Every structure is written in C-alpha cells, then in structure tokens.
Amino acid sequence: MSSGSPCASKKCYCGIPSKMLTSWTTDNPGRKFLTCKFSDVHTGRKGCGWFYWVDPDVVEWQRVVTNELVVEKRLLKTELRIMMTELQKLEDDKALLVAANERLERICNGGVAGMKGT
Q1: Beta 51-53 vs 45-46: how paired, if at all?
Q2: d(Cα 24, Cα 4) in Å, to the nearest integer?
Q3: Which residues are CB-contacts of 63 (< 8 A; sequence separation ≥ 6)?
Q4: Are 18 and 54 in contact (CB under 8 A)?
Q5: Domains of the chain: which residue ranges?
Q6: Running along the chain, 118 residues long, what does each successive block of 10 average in pLDDT?
Q7: How many angstroms separate the CA atoms of 69 and 52, rounded?
Q8: What does the radius of gyration of the chain's CA atoms come to, in whole angstroms?
Q9: How far is the C-alpha of 84 from the C-alpha of 65, rounded, in Å?
Q10: Residues near 60 by Cβ (< 8 Å), separated by ≥ 6?
Q11: pTM (whole model) above 0.70
C-alpha cells in the first residue's frame, strides 16, 4: 500500500493510522484488510475493534484453490522439517562412520601400536 493510496490514510476509532494485514482464514484466504494498530491476532487483543476490508470478497473457486494451496504449503513445510531432521541424522551418522573408519585405518596401518590411542 503506497502512502498516496486512500487506504493509507484510514484511521481506526483510536484516531491513529491503521495497519494492513492479510487474512488466512478459510473464509477469506489471502484477503487484505485494515485494522487497529493495537489489535494482535497472536495475543487475542482486539484494539478498538475497527476493521476494513481492502480487497473485494473472493469468489468461491478462488477460495477453494487458495485454501488447497495453503494446505499443500503446510504439508510441504512439514515434509521439509522431517527431511532436514533425517539429513542431520545422516550427517551425524556419517561423522561417526568416518571417525570409526579412521580408527580402523590407524589400527590396520599401525598394528598394535595404533591401538594405544583408542
């Protein structure tokens, strides 16, 4: 939203400039709105309660497609977290195997003398 847009000058009931957020509810996915700067969805604080839709309402097919994409994104994020965890475990296992291999090489190359350091 540029400072010259009509939405930029909208003030809430508190008399201060509003803030723009994006709705990710099932009914209004991706839809922009203005609200009181004192509202906070994470804490449940409503501020003065002022609210204004910036975007027009979405049509049903847009709602369905956007919701499907949001679900797919969440699934992909979950899969990525699982894969990153598996990758870290594989890297840890590799480090252990490399260390074990180095110990075995020292034993094989140094005979009994190489066993003193293990």
Answers
A1: unpaired
A2: 26
A3: 26, 27, 28, 29
A4: no
A5: 1-57, 59-118
A6: 56 93 92 93 88 92 94 97 98 97 92 54
A7: 25
A8: 28
A9: 28
A10: none
A11: no
